[in-house]
Amino acid sequence: GAVVSQHPSWVICKSGTSVKIECRSLDFQATTMFWYRQFPKQSLMLMATSNEGSKATYEQGVEKDKFLINHASLTLSTLTVTSAHPEDSSFYICSAPAGGTKETQYFGPGTRLLVL
Amino acid sequence: AQSVSQHNHHVILSEAASLELGCNYSYGGTVNLFWYVQYPGQHLQLLLKYFSGDPLVKGIKGFEAEFIKSKFSFNLRKPSVQWSDTAEYFCAVLRGNNDMRFGAGTRLTVKP
Lengths: 116, 112
Description:
Number of helices of chain A: 0
Oligomer: heterodimer
Largest sheet of chain B: 6 strands, mixed
Number of strands of chain A: 11
Order of helices and strands of chain A: EEEEEEEEEEE
Number of helices of chain B: 0
Distance between the termini of chain A: 37 Å
Distance between the termini of chain B: 40 Å
Order of helices and strands of chain B: EEEEEEEEEEEE
Largest interface: A-B, 21 and 23 residues
Largest sheet of chain A: 7 strands, mixed
Shape of chain B: globular
Structural class of chain A: mainly beta
C-alpha cells in the first residue's frame, strides 16, 4: 500500500523555539494532505488541510500563525509550530489520500513533540 | 455538538473471545464510515470502510462492521480475537469531501 512518512518521529525543544515537521508521500503524489493532533487518550483532531500550491485551510480554533503549513510539492507538506510552548506538546499526525480517492487516507507514523 | 462516540475506552479480553466495539455518530446526511487500527508503535491502518450498499462490511484480519442507519451506529466486530489484535481502534466519519472526524479510540488488550 501507499506509504506516508514523517520526520522527525520525536522532538524535544525549549519553549519559544520553532519546530518543523515534515510529511512525505513516498510512492504517490498528494495534492492534499491533512494534519491532525492527538492528545493522550483522546481522538485525532483535524488541524488543517494542506493544499499543494495554495494556502492551507485551518479548522476553527487552530491558529494559522502558530501552526504554519507549507505544501511546496506534490509529495511534501510541512507543519511548523512557531514559538512552541509546553501546551503545544502533543502527537502530530499527517495523512494523505492515495489513488485520487479522498476516502482512502494513508497515515504517517506521527511525530511526538515535547516542549520543555 | 456533532461528534463520533466510541463507548469503550479500554476493553480487555481473553484470546478467542468475541469482540464488539461500539461507534455512534451524530452527523446527519450522507457519511462514509471507517475503522482504523493502530498497533503499538505503528501508524494508523485502515481496517474497513463503508460507503454504500451492503451495510455489513468485511475488513481485513477477520473484522467486520455493521452500519445501522437508524441507530447512527457502525460497530466493529470480530468473532474470535487473538493476542495480535491488541491495539488501539478508531472509528471515523467522513462528511463531504475532506471532513473526517475521529472517535476517541478504544484500546483493546487481548490476554494470551
